[in-house]
Amino acid sequence: MSFAVLLKGANVLRKARLRNYTIRRFNKGSWNRTLVHSSAKINGPTGKAITSLATLAATWVTYVCFRTLENDANLLDDQDTTVNVDNSVSPFPTKLGPPEYPVSAKYVLLGYGARSVTFVSFRVYALGVYIAEQDRHLIPNVLNSKFLSTAFIDTDPSKSHQENVKEAMSDPKKSSILIDNLLDSGARMLVKITPVRNTDFNHLRDGFVKSVLNHPEAKNNQEVLSAGLEELRKAFTLKGKVAKNDDLIVELQANGGLQLSYYDRKRGHVTLLGRVNQQLVGKYLFSQYMSGPKPLSPSAKDSVASHIVALV
């Protein structure tokens, strides 16, 4: 039966002024259950027709409401413009750049996920990893290079290059090598971090410092990293609280430096925080999001990997 007929049935109900019209709770998959109840007494064929139409109308409305709620939990909120990364924060744009944010290029989403801590998977923020729109070609250029293909990727001749890339991106050591080569190619990257609960700048700053220090190669470059991490601490020029659903934008620019900015969603205001010129800080931080034995967000790492595989 068409939706127009159902609406017509609902209009008949209104004109009949039925009393105590209610919709009972329903269970998913039990669409044949009676959902309409009325204390009004309408006898004869007209009454049966009205009751039948009312039941169908209520079923349709309930179904639409259910599907709306179900769609809110889907990964794709709007397939063209946004991705629903976590239901507790605003959807992430699939593209971002100036003038909304003080960044150097237009970026497209490469992967997304959530950062969790402790053994109970306590979520702290949702994140999106982006690559500059003009730099996407660097992914196939780097991963299709003869050196990487021969030494690290195409080690199984029975599989296609794309299948071997997928295997390599699943391997902690190989994935670090591939991502490091991509970052060394000058690819501009960006990570958007949106807390799922109230936090503060000190907590975010300390988390970044810890993430860089946890990179597998950090111990071999402590002297160089020391000055860079001090730059990172000073880049957090704002103090105090960071509200749930605000954004911290970290851009890895073409020269390897980092630029940090903060979006206060309630005020609709963006603040440029500071810069980090030491290249290893940015490289290690982004490598921790996209590769390695202990990625900051396994779900984001896997999402990035699947998109990279699709581009080679």
UniProtKB/TrEMBL annotation:
Boundaries of every Chalcone isomerase domain copy? 106-305
Instruction: Output a single Gene Ontology CC term carried by this record.
Output: mitochondrion
Task: Quote the SUPFAM superfamilies the UniProt record gives.
Answer: Chalcone isomerase (SSF54626)
Keyword Mitochondrion carried by entry: yes
Q: Mind telling me which InterPro entries this protein's record contains?
A: Chalcone_isomerase, Chalcone_isomerase_3-sand, Chalcone_isomerase_sf
Where is this gene product found? Mitochondrion
Q: Which UniProt keywords apply?
A: Mitochondrion, Transit peptide
Cross-referenced Pfam families, in alphabetical order?
Chalcone_2
- The keyword Transit peptide appears for this protein: yes
Q: Which PANTHER family match?
A: FATTY-ACID-BINDING PROTEIN 2 (PTHR47284)
What family is this? Answer: Belongs to the AIM18/AIM46 family.
Task: State the protein's name.
Answer: Altered inheritance of mitochondria protein 18, mitochondrial
Traced from the root, the source organism's taxonomic lineage reads: Eukaryota, Fungi, Dikarya, Ascomycota, Saccharomycotina
